[in-house]
Amino acid sequence: MEKEREAEKIILHAEEKAVKIKNDAQDKAQNVYNQTYQETLAEAKRKSTEMKEQAKKDAESEAQIFIKHAEKLKKKIQETALQKFNEAVNSILNEILE
Predict the structure, then answer these.
(1) pLDDT tens profile 11-62
(2) In Å, how far are 10, 23, 82 from 19, measured between CA atoms?
(3) CA-CA distance, 43 to 23, in Å (whole number)?
(4) How many whole angstroms separate alpha carbon 12 and alpha carbon 6?
(5) Measured between alpha carbons, how far is 94 from 98 in angstroms, rounded to an integer?
(6) pLDDT class for 3, splitting at 50, 70, 90?
């Protein structure tokens, strides 16, 4: 009888210990999951910020190229307009002088 009670105590103690080990493992797994989730989320946010900054730089660079091109076209149009104006004035003066 005494041996049976001692065996039951050992079994009960082992079951309690197994439950504690299982609960500890679940807690640790949850903590690892939470930490990994937070790290992954932070990394995603960091990459998103980097991508946004790069997109902004790219857009600014493209805008500068577009502005330079537009300025060149404006200058060319102004030169052409001045040339056509001078040609028109010269043509009118030549008609008057003839």
Answers:
(1) 999 999 999 999 999 999 999 999 999 999 999 999 999 999 999 999 999 9
(2) 14, 6, 93
(3) 30
(4) 10
(5) 6
(6) confident
Choose among 61, 65, 60: nearest CA to 73: 65
Give CA angle at 62 (57, 63), nearest 5°.
95
pTM: 0.57
Q: Report the C-alpha gap between 42 and 34 in whole angstroms.
A: 12
Find the Cα–Cα–Cα–Cα dihedral 55, 58, 59, 61, rounded to 10°. Answer: 160
The Cα–Cα gap between 85 and 77 comes to 12
